[in-house]
Design goal:
The chain has 202 residues and is of the alpha/beta class. It has one domain: 2-enoyl-CoA Hydratase, Chain A, domain 1 (Alpha-Beta Complex), CATH 3.90.226. It is built from 9 helices and 10 strands.
Length: 202
């Protein structure tokens, strides 16, 4: 349910469970975490999905069985954040719930115009993963973070772009091409130089 394409120095990691809106199981979270650890040697990582939804968050049956509060979510987002290379979330559709953590941890986020963004964790009776509100607030500010996490708002791609939650809206057919184009300069640069610039950006 996770596919990996290692093309030269760029790894493309794809959520591949479109019949279930790429809802994440414990097995998928574990594999994603392990892939991100292994990708420490890659110059760039692109995270995307198949179908019309990037991810609906936790698989409902797995969530009821305890996945909603699993440390795997935080372990995954921390592994993404720790990548020394450039990380790009190429969002092929809606991003919801705990799946938002791995996208927030990426260096950049590009999205198709039809995507929607929401994180109904409070309504479901759970806390968000510890790093998610901080990363979201760093991108869009505390009030807008509360709009999503406490106000229960679903925002569309245009609003997400205005907020700064995503960095660019692209046509679906160009999503991966544009993500790959964003990696070209980093892959061509000296690794130490690219790493230092990434660290300087915060």
């Amino acid at each position: 349910m996770i596919t990996l394409d290692r093309e030269s120095d760029v790894w493309t990691v794809t959520l591949n469970r479109p019949d279930k809106a790429n809802a994440l199981t414990e097995e998928m979270l574990t594999e994603l975490r392990d892939v991100m650890h292994a990708a420490a040697g890659a110059r760039a990582v692109i995270l995307t999905g198949t179908g019309k939804v990037f991810s609906a968050g936790a698989d409902l049956d797995a969530a009821r069985a305890g996945l909603a509060t699993s440390p795997l979510w935080e372990e995954l987002s921390m592994a993404v954040a720790a990548l020394p290379g450039l990380s790009i979330a190429a969002l092929n559709g809606t991003l919801a719930g705990g799946a938002m953590g791995m996208a927030l941890a990426c260096d950049m986020r590009i999205s198709v115009a039809t995507a929607r963004f929401f994180y109904p964790v409070m309504k479901l009776g759970f806390l968000p993963q510890p790093s998610d509100p901080k990363r979201m607030a760093a991108l869009i500010g505390p009030a807008r973070t509360k709009l999503i996490l406490m106000g229960g708002q679903k925002i569309d791609a245009e609003e997400a772009l205005r907020f700064g939650l995503i960095d660019r809206i692209v046509p679906p057919e160009d999503l991966i091409t544009q993500a790959l184009a964003l990696t070209i300069d980093t892959v061509a640069a000296q690794p130490d130089l690219a790493g230092q610039i990434k660290d300087m950006c915060g």
